Amino acid sequence: MNTDPRIISFCCYNCAYAAADLAGAMRVSYDPRVTIVGVPCTGAMEAVVVLGAFEEGADGVFVAGCLDGECHYKEGNLRARERVARLRERLSEVGLEPERLEMYQVSAAMGARFGEIAAEFVDRIKALPPSPLRRGAAVKGGMSR
Ligand code: FES
């Protein structure tokens, strides 16, 4: 159980970042422990960025990109989805629960859905212990990229 999770959300400016903004405008509140980091396209995100968030002590990370067929860079969201799937395996290999990392897809108009996603993810991460990286404990195998 983790009552004070640190969560990073990498949000595409073209969809999820705008959806998060809309959630705020709609007064759909989501946990302030979700720190939103805007990215031009989830497909441009290197694995090192995601792993770096864990290394910096995030308990959970979610990547939020455009809906299928709506990525401004054609298939960036699909590449991101594959990358997240591979990184989940990597987390498992180093002893972190793979559910600490997730990929979601939303449109800029889905403010309410963004709020739901954030709440669901916070609940998921709260149910896990704090990240061993956050506690400063060694993780088996390290986090080599
Ligand atoms: Fe949004 Fe590619 S432009 S995921």
From TrEMBL:
Pfam families: FlpD. Residues 7-128 form the F420-non-reducing hydrogenase iron-sulfur subunit D domain. Keywords: Iron, Iron-sulfur, Metal-binding, Oxidoreductase. One of its GO terms (molecular function) is iron-sulfur cluster binding. Signal peptide: none annotated. This is Methyl-viologen-reducing hydrogenase, delta subunit. It comes from Desulforudis audaxviator (strain MP104C). The lineage of its organism: Bacteria, Bacillati, Bacillota, Clostridia, Thermoanaerobacterales.
